[in-house]
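#structure-requests
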Amino acid sequence: MNESNSPTLADMPADPVAAVTHADPYPYYTALRDGPPLAWNEKLRLWVASRADVIEEVLLAHGALRVRPTAEPVPRAIVGSAAGEVFGHLVRMNDGVAHQAHRPALQRALAGLDLNAVHAAALQIALRVLQQQPLSDTLFSMPVQAVAHLLGFADDALPQVDRWMRDFVACLSPLSTPEQLRRASAAAGELMTRFEVLVTGEPPRHGTLLAAVLAESAGDATLSRSLLANVAGLLSQTCDATAGLVGNSLIALMREPSLHPSTRTRDGLQAIVEETARHDPSVHNTRRFAAEAVTIAGTPLASGDTVLVLLASANRDPAFNPDPDRFMLVRARRRMLGFGHGMHACPGQALACTLAAASLDALLRRAPDLDAQRLRGWSYRPSVNGRIPVFH
């Protein structure tokens, strides 16, 4: 799957943030990599990192570069709300002691998952969801309901948990309206209540992800609201990111018919998903905020500076992945930064790819006409960092 590297100026995204929803941002990322290691963008008032080696350096500068601005650990729009409480506890939104409080337990619980059992359960849930919703909505519901099932929710509760999570993730976007933020806070409150019921009633069902997280936690932390918020965070991380991974994998199949024979096996579907996560990922960028003066790639940053980290550009850096613009199911060493790097590397990468492969399997079992869908086309949901298709 080769992409043009000679676009006209009119074909280029307006800026590195607009690139995430552009039809083909990759030639633009190539042009950025040909520029300075860190480039100042006057329009966005931030530094832009586009090369893989520079991005690795940024993501490893844990002390100086933080995941949230020092003066605003929780977005102002949700401070004091239930959504703000959940956000403030999330491991991925914290550094230092707060980051380490629950990450080890989450990491061990996720590492202990039986991915074969996860795939089987996720496939059955995805097939059921596909009978109920339009294609673009199923991208979210299939993986979210699968994780809710893994956490121990009863089957009849899965659609409601799904709706709450769809509402909650709105608080993670700066594009959300006041009404969306209100619904996000209501959903966060409902989710926290349901998780409290799960852990304070009968012990969580053996084999569930919630039981594993609690077993891996120490002492009275097992019932803390902070830990429960991070369990809810497993659902929120699944929602948009895995939806984009499923949708972009489907687009890869539409663009490249030679991939179709690989869809006949689970390993083939898994390979398609994993290469999609590198080639056209669902998360294109993240940010880091300088808590102190620091020099990155020879460029001095001042305290308060922001760095836009173009993860999708790094994945296509030829110094990081040879022949990066080709979609290749077999690579000697597939490298990607979309799941993070260093202290904030996502411990759920294997789970996300398994859920996406099961969802893609379900979609193809329902025999969508890929040629007809390719002709109808797709666009991308408004976002500042997520690449999630909307199929026409």
